[in-house]
Write a structure and sequence with these properties.
Strand order of the largest sheet: 3-4-5-2-6-7-1-8
CATH superfamily of the largest domain: P-loop containing nucleotide triphosphate hydrolases
Shape: elongated
Structural class: alpha/beta
Oligomer: single chain
CATH topology of the largest domain: Rossmann fold
CATH architecture of the largest domain: 3-Layer(aba) Sandwich
Strand content: 15-25%
Number of helices: 14
Number of domains: 2
Distance between the termini: 110 Å
Number of strands: 17
Length: about 425
Amino acid sequence: MEIVIPYSPRPLQAALHAEMQRKRWGVIVSHRRFGKTVWAINHILRDCIMSPHPRPRYAYMAPTFRQAKSVAWDYLKEFAGKIPGVTFHETELRCDLPTGGRISLLGAENYESLRGLYLMGCVMDEYASISETVFPEILRPALSDHKGWCCMIGTPAGHNAFFDLYEKASVDDDWLCVVNKASETGILDQEELAAAKTMMSENQYAQEFECSWTANVAGSIYGKELEAAQTEGRVCNVPYDPAHKVDTFFDLGIGDSTSVWFTQTVGRAIHVIDFYEARNEGLPHYCKMLTDRRYVYGDHHAPHDIEVRELGSGKSRREVAWDLGLNFRVVPKLPIEDGIHAAQMLIPRCYFDREKTKDGLEALRQYHRAYSEKTRSFRASPVHDWSSHSADSFRYLAVGLRQPRDHQRVPQQQAVMEYNPFAA
């Protein structure tokens, strides 16, 4: 029997069909109106028809059962309705094919009721709105018997399980990872995009049409720079290089958190290889932490308040650290805005280790200015919250690296003349 599905994929959709056939797992990040759901339904339908299994089972999952019905059910009936002998079960949102195959539309809100399924393939739509336990606990085991495939699709909604999955897929050859931005696909014309910009905030437009992971953090200070680092592949595996010394940059706190960034300067590039943060710990703890990491260290940097003397002992924390074998260089005191500007200028030179600096990077992404509804503008001072300490120590990193060091200066040598023109 020859079955013709009334579907003509766009070039980008056709490319995704071809690429996903070669991969078992996929993450597709696409702008609104790209055609993600149409692509998903037709990819499932074709695979179900072509499956050699006598009773193939496939699923499309949305965040809720009602959303699956309103978004995908009509598409499934439209594209599968031309197949002779097909039957649709409206109540269950199920399509039974004459080949013995079955396609079910599922909602993730009551995922416990889905245990025990077996599947050959599945698409999870709007993955950012689905509980992160659904895939590893429900769908991944359901795909094991027949080594089925799964593709997560959606539009970014901040840093959540979808972002973590995107980061994993972007460096794993076993995963398909695709990002489709409205400015690059050409699906929506420039007139429509311009009209959308006038009715949406900059962050809303960046998230919904340009697939920005940080746009939902209003007033983000380093969001654009870190977005560029992610896109350019500078958030990756950055191993420790024993040929270069490791510099550290501290933001010291007692009641608050103490944050430490670890860097290696390789040419003009800054390799940010590690990050550490702890709370309610004294200097001996951080000395031990440095020793345990077994790096070969260069300079340790701390802010100017390390020079403040304590009333009880009469010693500064810098002197206490010296007694413990830790010699700090004091980072010059600059206005916060100057330090932030220095950090923004430094990030394009930085390569961040994905795993070891993950917590620090998340803090930098969440570091933001508060919005004032009264003045309808962002306040000048950043919000002081859990992300501040990591951001402060990174600011000290940027300011400290700007200072020239004696051992980095090119040795100067006086010219030696071969003759003396003033000789008699």
